[in-house]
Specification:
By secondary structure, the protein is α+β, with helices and mostly antiparallel strands. It has one domain: Arc Repressor Mutant, subunit A (Orthogonal Bundle), CATH 1.10.10. The protein is 29% helix and 24% strand. It contains 2 helices and 6 strands; from the N terminus they run E-E-E-E-E-E-H-H. The strands form 2 sheets. Strands 3-4-6-5 form a 4-stranded mixed β-sheet, covered by helices on one side. Strands 1-2 form a two-stranded antiparallel sheet. Strand 1 and strand 2 form a beta hairpin. Helix 1 crosses helix 2. The longest helix has 19 residues. Bound molecules: zinc ion. The site of zinc ion has 4 residues, from helix 1 and helix 2.
């Protein structure tokens, strides 16, 4: 939401005019079905059951899949996908980040790239409605 400060109509003071950017469902960027990282081609999918049952996403280098939980919204999908993508990069390039380091890097990168407008605040998978 952007605000613009302007003189009020009666000229007695300042008022704020609000402009709301309307985002329709069709405007939300959609991930491709496959994503190449290093030598592997990862399939990006939603799966109902995660390992442990509570995770919002998981990455399997063996199955070459980035999996996201079905119940997360488009905003969470953007964040969780980036987290899982860093897991895949971590494995493919043998960086040896811990789970905590992956989380912190993903959160920082997500905030930074979104502030620059280089990464969407909402994201859909290819298979999403
Ligand atoms: Zn993780």
């Amino acid at each position: 939401m952007n605000t613009t400060t302007m003189m009020s109509e009666d000229g007695t003071g300042w008022t704020e005019a609000w402009s709301v950017k309307v985002v329709t469902s069709e405007m939300i960027p959609r991930l491709p079905r496959y994503h190449d990282i290093g030598p592997r081609r990862y399939k990006i999918i939603r799966v109902p059951a995660m390992a442990g049952g509570v995770a919002l996403g998981e990455t399997s280098i063996y199955a070459e899949e980035i999996r996201l939980a079905p119940q997360i919204n488009n905003r969470a999908t953007a964040r969780v996908f980036l987290h899982e993508d860093i897991h895949a990069i971590n494995e493919e390039y043998e960086i040896e980040l811990t789970e905590n380091q992956v989380s912190r890097l993903a959160n920082g990168l997500c905030a930074s790239l979104q502030a620059l407008g280089f990464y969407p605040t909402e994201l859909k998978l290819a298979e999403d409605p």
